[in-house]
Specification:
The chain is an alpha/beta fold and about 325 residues long. Helix content is about 40%, strand content about 15%. It has 11 helices and 13 strands. The chain has helices spanning about 10-20, 55-60, 80-100, 120-135, 155-165, 185-195, 215-225, 240-250, 260-265, 275-280, 300-310, and strands spanning about 1-5, 25-30, 45-50, 65-70, 105-110, 140-145, 150, 170-175, 180, 185, 205-210, 215, 230-235. The longest helix has 22 residues, at about 80-100.
Length: about 325
């Protein structure tokens, strides 16, 4: 039995679909909430209701569990307090409970650039979470992923929504723009599931990314071309971009971009182009060929619908 945390998130939904397709038994840890969880339709699954901070609930969720895929995090919700509670304290609770339960395998999704000395809260939180897992005694694999894209992501759909919301011009980082290595969501979920079955990955931290390096401006141009949204690009320095993100955070209940996203874009987020073929035998998908989900949609309406849903939750 595999326990999946963060199963209602962007990556979690893809992992759940892959586990179901593979016929692997799994259970999800579902945080109690008023809103209906966003899970793939038509997939039967076991559910344990508990937050990661509830140690008794986490221990109960681990009964009969051999392996854990840990995806839960708070970076989309935005505050430093939530990062500490979910990414740090939640991971410590899970690590201790998994060790007590005799879990034989754990795979954790982290970020490229995770570092306890980082200036950026998300990357510090991920690094501390990694340390708890390494010290737990549970055989662990850590995958540090580059920027992940796909339907419902923070990267491309967030860009499409903000492009639709801003008339005429769109702010971008001043040259030299940071480079990304976008990796397709289905490639990431495949690696997370396959890592459970790879004993040589135990104790390793593996950095994964897509097959190409793109600047954030390249990514914005791809999104504009595919979504049919055309804006003049206005280069701005980082403080002005973070100010814009701050305004979005204050004005919208569910902002499509946050200051944490600009933290991620502060420097290049790239790794070896050959890791997926070499470690997993997987040829990763190029970004340009996987953006069809952006076509034919009103991203302004999508943004409004997202805010109404968040306000009602």
């Amino acid at each position: 039995m595999i326990l999946v945390t963060g199963a209602t998130g962007f990556v979690g939904r893809s992992v759940v679909r892959r586990l179901d397709q593979a016929g692997l038994p799994f259970r999800i840890l579902l945080r109690p909430a008023r809103r209906t969880p966003d899970l793939p339709a038509g997939i039967p699954m076991q559910v344990s209701l508990s937050s990661l901070s509830d140690r008794r609930g986490v221990r109960a969720a681990l009964v009969g569990v051999d392996a854990v895929i840990h995806l839960a995090g708070a970076e989309r919700r935005g505050s430093r307090e939530e990062l500490i509670l979910a990414d740090i304290e939640g991971t410590r609770s899970l690590a201790e409970a998994a060790a007590e339960a005799g879990v034989r395998r754990l795979v954790f999704l982290s970020h490229l650039g995770a570092d306890r000395a980082s200036a950026y809260p998300v990357l510090r939180a991920k690094a501390v979470a990694e340390e708890f897992l390494r010290g737990s005694g549970v055989p662990t694999t850590i995958l540090r992923a580059a920027a992940i894209f796909g339907p419902g992501d923070r990267l491309t759909t967030g860009l499409a929504m903000t492009l639709a919301a801003l008339p005429l011009v769109y702010p971008v980082p001043r040259p030299p723009a940071p480079r990304l290595q976008p990796v397709w969501i289905e490639d990431v979920s495949a690696c997370l599931v396959w890592a459970l079955e790879e004993p040589e990955l135990i104790g390793r931290t593996v950095e994964i990314g897509g097959p190409e390096y793109l600047s954030i401006v390249d990514v914005i141009r791809l999104v504009m071309a595919t979504a049919g949204i055309h804006r003049a690009l206005l280069p701005l320095s980082a403080p002005y971009l973070r100010l814009g993100a701050w305004i979005f955070e204050r004005a919208l209940p569910h902002p499509p971009v946050t200051r944490f996203w600009f933290d991620y874009l502060a420097v290049d987020r790239t790794t070896d182009l050959n890791t997926l073929p070499r470690v997993f035998g997987l040829q990763p998908a190029r970004m340009e060929g996987r953006l069809e989900y952006l076509r034919g949609r009103s991203w302004a309406r999508e943004l409004l619908a997202q805010q109404r849903q968040a306000s009602a939750a």
